[in-house]
Design a protein that fits this description.
The complex is a heterodimer of chains A (119) and B (107). By secondary structure, chain A is an all-beta fold. Chain A has no helices and 10 strands. The chains are: A mainly beta (119), B mainly beta (107).
């Protein structure tokens, strides 16, 4: 049974970098069948797709964040990560990591982690 | 980016009611749309993918239809556990985009 768990250092100050890791158990980030991604949810902007990564390192980013976002994966640790630079209060949100097979919706979600940007 | 307009933003219904929620995409997306249910404090849950395919384990009272730009989620007989917020998501091309959500509460 696949489990996804977001982890991060907690609150982030404005202008700093937000870093989150998604720990994967019951599955492998090396799978050639699946994509891995990040989605966030804030009261002001609803659900927003941030970006995705596929085995081999191909990435897809939301253009609204593209200059600030990067997603990477570490196959040796079986996890993937999100970095968002130069954060502001608008980046305060619950961040979800997800797994999907293209064309079949997003069946697998982590429980989400709240990241607050505040000085 | 493809815009997805979801309606209504909220509705009140009773147990046993038939409920319909719609999403309209700003351009044709074939059948690349899914429906999700979210309860407070939880991650969204996939109900329907590819417009009309029922996700494994989801009750058959949930159904989806549509293609191109117009899509519908129908709950044939609302149950107590169905009071939640519902979202559509177009996964036709990146960036994927969500509808604004429909909150279904008890009349």
């Amino acid at each position: 049974q696949l489990q996804l768990q977001e982890s991060g250092p907690g609150p982030v100050k404005p202008s700093e970098t937000l870093s989150l890791t998604c720990i994967v158990s019951g599955g492998s980030v090396s799978s050639v069948s699946h994509y891995w991604g990040w989605i966030r949810q804030s009261p002001g902007t609803g659900l927003e797709w941030i970006g995705s990564i596929y085995f081999g390192g191909t990435t897809y980013y939301n253009p609204s964040l593209k200059s600030r976002v990067s997603i990477s994966m570490d196959t040796s640790k079986n996890h993937f990560s999100l970095r968002l630079t130069s954060v502001t209060g608008a980046d305060t949100a619950v961040y979800f990591c997800v797994r999907y097979f293209y064309g079949s919706g997003i069946p697998d979600w982590g429980p989400g982690t709240l990241v607050t940007v505040s000085s | 980016a493809i815009q997805v307009t979801q309606s209504p933003s909220s509705l009140s219904a009773s147990v046993g009611d038939r409920v319909t929620i719609t999403c309209r995409a700003s351009q044709g997306i074939r059948n690349a749309l899914g429906w999700y249910q979210q309860k407070p404090g939880e991650a969204p849950k996939l109900l329907i993918y590819a417009a009309s395919s029922l996700q494994s384990g989801v009750p058959s009272r949930f159904s989806g239809s549509g293609s191109g730009t117009d899509f519908t989620l129908t709950i044939s007989s609302l149950q107590p556990g169905d009071f939640a917020t519902y979202y559509c998501l177009q996964d036709f091309n990146y960036p994927w985009t969500f509808g604004q959500g429909t909150r279904v509460d008890i009349k």
